[in-house]
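Exercise: predict the fold of this chain.
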Amino acid sequence: KIYVSSGWETRIMKIPHTLLIAASLVNDSSSVHHHDPIQAKVEKPWSGGGAVSYSHAKLKSNVGEWIGEFFSQVVTMRGLAAGDFDELNALFEGTMIKLPDAQFRVDLPWPLSGVDITIRDLVCTGLSIDDMTLSHQIISKQEVDVNIVVSGITLECDFGWKYKYGIVNGSGDGQVYARDGQSFVESTITFTSTDFNQHPPNGSFVKSCEANIEITDMDFQGGIVAAIADAFEKSVRNTIEDEVEDVACEELDGLGTGFVEGLLGYLTDVLEPYIAHTPENPLYAEIELNSKGVRLLDLINSEDNIGSLVNDMFGLISDNLGGVVDDIGGPNGNEDLGINVILRDVLLDEDRSYELDIDDLDLSNGGVIYEGNDMLTETIISMTAVRLNGLDTFTSFEPLNTIGSYTMQNSFAIKELGLSMDLTIEMKASSNDDAVIIDPSNPTITEYITIETFVKDIELDASFLFALNLEKLEDVQLGSLLFSDQVLPCMLNLLHTPIVFTQLLASVSEVMPPTLDGFISEGLDKIILSVSTISFEMYEPSILSALPGIFDTTLRASMNSFMETYLSNPTNAACSQPSESAKEGFVDLRDLLLTPSEAVLVGGEGTSKYGDIIPMFKQ
């Protein structure tokens, strides 16, 4: 190592082995290696031993200029990632990692006897990382390996020590430092599935783990005989490195078998029922319908005048919803399908999204999808909102096709449909009795993130119960049905039971990889993006298989919930009476048969007081 001091800064760097040939090492046989780049210390001799001497690397050639250039390049390269994991490191700020006590015996060269050493109260603080990377490799249809590398680990540890060497014993305290940024942990977690082409992961295990913690400096307080000083220092160093490395791999093993298994279990439990879902008979609501004492309009056998009129109205609704209408200033230009315009006016929020009710998603515990408490952290992931985007991107709409006496079907295609989920991630030091992280204040780190994904080219067939009460229908004044904006409220007013969607079949051509937004840490953002990309590759076939079931269960339940709420408002199903001006005198055929602009040209009022339905039919 070379310690480069300039002004108020002191930096540490590693130099290539090629430079070491220019260095000579001055070393006393009984020296205890102790490096402190921040401040040169004069150590007091340990009692019972002689003076402590230090090793120094002295360069015997003039390589100062090369070192300066090399150092500049190193600092520049590392600066590109500086601070990426500040928020993650903040989780460990003020925390203490408690490691197990250790007892061991060190054999010394003959004729010396062995020494028994105990390390106690080993607590590490100042934990931070420089970088974390994830990569994956598809091994087979049943296995996918995910490699995790955590590098640039720094920490410092305090501990108590004692030894017994024959009749001599001693005790004291010590500190070790791993702060050169060379420490790392690398682990490979294997995910398994019966077949990734059809099913989601159903298990995981840690295939391998390698940890390398490099202690760079050590301090001791207390007395120790000089004869065992070197062996003592080396043994303590190795033991503490082993302790930290074991805990690191144990935690990654816990990540693979605890946190990951928990999420896998949740996601598998969610997706598998959708994959195995079998659609219900679209006529099930019609079969179960209780129409005793009520005359309902038979949509199949509607040869009477009223039935013919209703079918004509259905045709008009189909033309208005599936046809192109004016949409001045709309997102798709000045024209769009009628259904898209109506959805934006009636159902969607200002940002053209539709928020699902969390209660309709069968989530327990108020939307908590994961809750875990391991040796390191306590983590809660909650789903706070779910939104659908793209509901107003219909490219075709063929509504109101009769498939039963009281059941109709809509067939349509959507350009793209997006799913957006708001998640809250809360992390804090573990509260378990066996926790290795201890934090008296136990602060909580909270992240609010949004995950979005889109499916493209969706084709849907939606079947629904549409039972009209004939008695109510016969009481409707004809003038109320001559206004196109009154057709739907009047039809809803005639329902015997609320509209119930009985089947929602879907097929999609492509699922887009998810995107994430909201992380305030660039490092966490990078990691979560890697996780989402890897997860997407493992889950995409399952998602495609599960989508039909998701549409026919969760989304259909949400639509039925919306219809129930919408129809509970009387104003949404109010059939207005014709205006009084339309009842006065004789019917003016110019205003009855012509559009307002045409009626004015031939002397009519042009106010559409008789409605716009008949001029539409005439055209």
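Check your answer against the key: The chain has a mean pLDDT of 77.
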